[in-house]
Amino acid sequence: xxxxxxxxxxxxxxxxxxxxxxxxxxxxxxxxxxxxxxxxxxxxxxxxxxxxxxxxxxxxxxxxxxxxxxxxxxxxxxxxxxxxxxxxxxxxxxxxxxxxxxxxxxxxxxxxxxxxxxxxxxxxxxxxxxxxxxxxxxxxxxxxxxxxxxxxxxxxxxxxxxxxxxxxxxxxxxxxxxxxxxxxxxxxxxxxxxxxxxxxxxxxxxxxxxxxxxxxxxxxxxxxxxxxxxxxxxxxxxxxxxxxxxxxxxxxxxxxxxxx
Length: 260
Ligand SMILES: Nc1ncnc2c1ncn2[C@@H]1O[C@H](COP(=O)(O)OP(=O)(O)O)[C@@H](O)[C@H]1O
Ligand SMILES: [Mg+2]
Prior knowledge:
The longest helix is centred in the last third of the chain and has 16 residues. The chain contains eight helices and ten strands. α4 runs parallel beside α6. By secondary structure, the protein is α/β, with parallel strands linked by helices. The chain is globular and about 50 Å long. It has one domain: Rossmann fold, CATH 3.40.50.300. The site of adenosine-5'-diphosphate (ADP) has 12 residues, from β2 and α2.
């Protein structure tokens, strides 16, 4: 994929030191507990305390089944927690109606998934425009903005193509455009490079760093150390608790090197 076409790269330097814009907590978790009640109750998150400042770029690592996706789904208001408090951008996320949750999600969060989650019968442009539909943006404005974001990611010529006509890297760029088109405050990415080869993974991570440097808070779930090392903090989850938080210096990484 040709990242030189990505607009974010023109305005920032991928290797500069990233510091949070200020100390305002964008995400604050206090004693979050989550149990799945199946045949056997499964206590997945056991009193998680965590603060992520506005403008930070962090990763969450842990073995398969350690609760990474559960935590990310709670952060994204896609799932409820049982006890504790979650403050997103200063607002308590608790006991929300479906509509309130959807509204908060739409205004604050952009999602990126391992399997892209693009709608197969919609074109790249229609996929990017879709979140704006839920914000009651007019069709004309939706399409304009979608094209603008596709262009930023070097995908202008692919606007009318369907997902199955795109490579993995192109699909992930469409999904990044879709995540950003609503100008969210936070990007939540669950294994964003899990389905990509090494070179494309490095390119996607470089774009995500550029996006972060434009001020957007970024949380990336990954089980790949090479991905996590490209974030400023690694939160290690084990058996439902945060085992430790590792501080990184991604500015010291040679970003031209491949990841895997
Ligand atoms: N909806 C669910 N119902 C019951 N158990 C679940 C559900 N989602 C996840 N789990 C279980 O919770 C544990 C944590 O899952 P998950 O958060 O997906 O872990 P990770 O993303 O770290 O691999 C796993 O044992 C998983 O099987
Ligand atoms: Mg997972």
